[in-house]
Design brief:
CATH superfamily of the largest domain: Hexapeptide repeat proteins
Strand content: 25-35%
CATH architecture of the largest domain: 3 Solenoid
CATH class of the largest domain: Mainly Beta
Amino acid sequence: MKLDEIMTVKSISLKELAKKLKVEFSGNGDLQITHVCGLDSLQPGGLAYLTSPGGLNSVPTPAGMSRQVDNTVDEINSSQVALVVSSEVKYQGQNILISSDPLATHVAATKILNTTELKILGLTKKSGIHSSAVVSKSAKLGKNVIVGPKVVIYDGVRIDENTILHAGTVIMSDVVIGADCIFYPNVVVQEKTEIGDRVILQSGAVIGADGHGYFQRKGINQKIPQVGNVHLEDDVEIGACTTIDRARFRTTTIKQGCKIDNQVQIAHNVQLGEQSLISAQSALGGSVKTGNHLIMGGQSGIRDNVNVGNNVTAIARAVITANTLDKEVIGGMPGRPVSQWKHLQSLINRLGELFERVRKLES
């Protein structure tokens, strides 16, 4: 008995694909598109994309293809492949999908060509609950909820329709989960967490663990109870082995549309603004409050109790240590405007030269 998620690949004609994507096409409408790919891996049946005419320079030249000439697609494709291009790219009857946003169209094509079929063995026919799962009698599961092997659901849990809990997931007491969510294997959601619709939790994510709250008396660390919760709003995705701590008193909030990478730490009481993007191995300290559209590069951080403006970017390994204005780009540790940080880095790189000059002057 096991939970299998199988990616089923379809084949679709270029003409039919264009119709589904609501874009124009040129070339052989009967060409069967079997997969999406990058320019560096074009194979028969493949669909790649270009975001600008200049991208044609990177099209490979396997047998049956030739490089672009004067930014045209003429002779780029063999008869067995296709490209998604912008209207700026000239084309002369090859296999082309014409889109105002080639990347978005290519992503949409990926979803059409690759569908996920969930097959679970050993489910009861009525409820979609695996025979090895442990589900409290007080839990309320909506229509078409799927509960995989060894899942544990505590008292007072509510899960809305079409949500999928993969193997080994643990949902603790009084958790509320919205519709159309996917929790991958070994996710843990601790008590009183609130999760919106279409939330994705990748394997090993832990939502609602205690915040790191302690005080010392006579040299002994004393634990401060963390009695708040976590709220993930709609369309949030949390990466593998990422941890989000419950608030001390109120709520740690991850707002609508945030996408958080693997192995990220979100401390207690954080308020993360809408549509933020957090890269791997980054950390937000306790009680950080950010505006919308925050971008954090890999291994970056924000010190506790800092307020960050809207549309702020922290480049890789930057640490924001003080409040910021909107639209700032921060680099270095301690964090500072990236132009200032780059200037300081250039000076540091010249320290050897400066030392040698001082040595000569002293001698």
